[in-house]
Amino acid sequence: MPCETSAQLELLVIGYGNTLRGDDAVGPRVAETVGKLRLPGVRTLICPMLTPELAEPISHFANVIFVDAAIDGQNRVQWRKLEPKATSQLMAHAADPRTMLALARDVFDRTPEAWWLTIPAADLGFIEGLSPRVSDHLEEAVQMIQAFTLAADPRGR
């Protein structure tokens, strides 16, 4: 993504997960669906995992929503406000959203407002496609992002 020199961009939606592992593909599928809506001020990124290279594009946005599958036992889509970790040190080749925010802060001196939108996963096997329950949650997640963009837009578009 080219560097923006004018005002910060409004919203970046990052959908991440392994598209070859069933419901783990829900993050990329949500970002893909949001991208097709062509919402004003919204850009999307799709990636298999969060890597340090994403800190640069993250730093250009006022708001970031990270979208991922969850296996934490919750049976609902969850929307959580995020704060950057205290340190941007990576312990593996991939990072979590809070580490990405810390990297944007430490390297680019910019930390956007951020949220973590997680969708409960049912099947993470080596299959293509989402389970029916996760497909329903995908629609709910897209609607939540649309509602966020309307609330964040002072013109009410």
Please count the helical segments. 4
Q: Which fold name corresponds to the CATH topology?
A: Rossmann fold
| C-alpha Rg (nearest Å) | 15 Å
Shape: globular
Would you tell me the structural class of the helices and strands?
alpha/beta
CATH superfamily: HybD-like
Order of helices and strands: EHEHEEHEH
Q: Unreliable stretches, pLDDT < 50, 5 or more residues?
A: 1-7
Quickly count the domains. Answer: 1
Report the CATH architecture: 3-Layer(aba) Sandwich
Q: Please give the alpha-carbon distance between the first and last residues.
A: 25 Å
**How much strand content do the residues show?**
15-25%
CATH class: Alpha Beta
The averaged pLDDT comes out at 89
Strand order of the largest sheet: 2-1-3-5-4
- Helicity range of the residues? 25-40%
Q: List how many beta strands DSSP finds.
A: 5
How is the biggest beta sheet arranged? 5 strands, mixed
Structure commentary:
This protein is of the alpha/beta class and 157 residues long. The chain has one domain: 3-Layer(aba) Sandwich (Rossmann fold). It is 31% helix and 24% strand. It is globular.
Brief characterization of the structure:
The protein is 31% helix and 24% strand. It has helices at 26-37, 55-58, 97-108, 132-152; strands spanning 9-16, 42-47, 61-70, 78-82, 113-120. Helix 1 (26-37) links the parallel strand 1 (9-16) and strand 2.
